Amino acid sequence: MTHDRDALIAAAKAAQAQAYAPYSNFHVGAALGFTDGSVVTAANTENASYGLTLCAETNAVAQAMSEGRRGGLEAVAVVGGTRGEPGPVVTPCGRCRQVLNELAQLGGTDPVIWCAGADEVLELQLSALLPYAFGPANLG
Ligand code: THU
After folding, report:
1. What is the pLDDT of residue 34?
2. Is the pTM value of this prediction over 0.85?
3. Which atom of ligand 1 is nearest to the CA of 91?
4. Ligand 1 atom with minimal separation from the 19 CA
5. CA angle, 21 as apex, 19 and 27 as ends, to 5°?
């Protein structure tokens, strides 16, 4: 494992500060850790047309893929809370699990997901969050 758990959570928290969430007031930050040691972060981006909201994890994957990354996803940290205050752990929503799976499966990894709350960190593999995933390998 290239990435330190607490460092990746700290990167997610730093990204959380950039959340644009005037409608839900729920600020989320995500950090993607890659096997080469690099980190890509993002926050959630809401929209006046509420359904167009983009989650932090999805934004982070889009950012990473826009930089040309096609795998190497080793670890993910997610933090969320109302007005950015620490609270219960936030696990990636269903859509984000599928989006994370795309990048993970391209590189054949099963990233660990660190979901950080005020008092605990829930550690799960993506394969546990999204069992029997459909991905690019199915279309091969
Ligand atoms: N949100 C995320 O960014 N990631 C998740 O995994 C769960 C939800 C955002 C979307 C919306 O801006 C706010 O949290 C409330 O749902």
Report:
1. 98
2. yes
3. 6
4. 12
5. 55
